[in-house]
Amino acid sequence: MTEVAFLGCIDCAVAEICAIGERQSNQDALGYARQDDLTCFIVSDGTGGHEGGEVAAKLVVNSIKQKFLQEACFGVRALQSYVEFAISQVTKDKLSSPQQRDMSATVATLLFDHCNRTALWAHLGDSRIYMFRNGKVHKISKDHSLAQRLIDAGYVSADQLRTHPKRSILFAAVGAEGDTAPEITKETIQIQDGDAFLMCTDGYWEWVEDAEMEQSLLSSSSSEEWLNNMNAIADNNVRVARKSRDNYSAFAIWLQEPTIPSN
């Protein structure tokens, strides 16, 4: 578990996991960077073959970190520029490496201004960002997937999303954007003590229902315990379903007021 502390600002306790599951390679990647009173978190899930998926996901994470550290700023335009830089780098690599021409990757990135107590997020694909307040899901990013489009059109009920046979088919990702731009929160999110965020690839959220995420959060005393409890639920759900688990990655982020030492 990592403690990201800012004197006089809201602190951030972070736990992370990035696991291969029951696959031959791990095409997930995650990372974060800190500059002054800002922190940028990134999660990515690559596609396009064994090597291509790994390359795309790592390139997305490293590109956003690089751009953020070069031009650390809080705002919609700044966050958009970080994601657009990742898109340009993936496109550049695809053009220079014919063997990587089919690669792409999801992206979910979360930007905190700890002292002004605000957040923004951007995403493309089906890696998700959840925000929890008072132990309940407060906001969720919406997948760029065929299954989500079917739900939006009324052909499929929302509770079928995790089991729909076309749940993994994306209509947009970094390197395969088509006419879909990265989705960025339109308004700044005001954050407060006790808020929590979960950022994860589909290999994680697919096996944990929203209610199970909430229950785990309410029964946990740290971000690490929350993440581990959810992952245990996911492992059990995989066993019950008699399925094999994909790569899975996640950040569990818990916002806390700074601890003031007692005299």
Describe, in plain words, how this protein is organized in 3D.
With 263 residues, this protein is an alpha+beta fold. It has a single domain (2-249), classed as PPM-type phosphatase domain (Phosphatase 2c, domain 1). It has helices at 50-70, 76-96, 146-152, 202-205, 210-218, 223-241, and strands at 2-4, 11-19, 28-35, 38-47, 104-105, 107-113, 118-124, 128-133, 136-140, 183-184, 189-190, 196-200, 248-256. Strands 3, 4, 5, 6, 7, 10 and 11 form a seven-stranded antiparallel sheet that branches. Helix 1 runs antiparallel to helix 2. The mean pLDDT is 91.
Topology, element by element:
Layout: E1 2-4, E2 11-19, E3 28-35, E4 38-47, H1 50-70, H2 76-96, E5 104-105, E6 107-113, E7 118-124, E8 128-133, E9 136-140, H3 146-152, E10 183-184, E11 189-190, E12 196-200, H4 202-205, H5 210-218, H6 223-241, E13 248-256
Antiparallel strand pairs: 1-2, 2-13, 3-4, 4-5, 4-6, 6-7, 7-10, 7-11, 8-9, 8-12, 12-13
- CATH fold type: Phosphatase 2c, domain 1
Envelope shape: globular
Strand content: 25-35%
Order of helices and strands: EEEEHHEEEEEHEEEHHHE
CATH homologous superfamily identity:
PPM-type phosphatase domain
Span of the ends, CA to CA? 27 Å
Number of strands: 13
Q: In terms of per-residue confidence, which ranges show pLDDT below 50 for 5 or more consecutive residues?
A: none
What is the CATH C-level name?
Alpha Beta
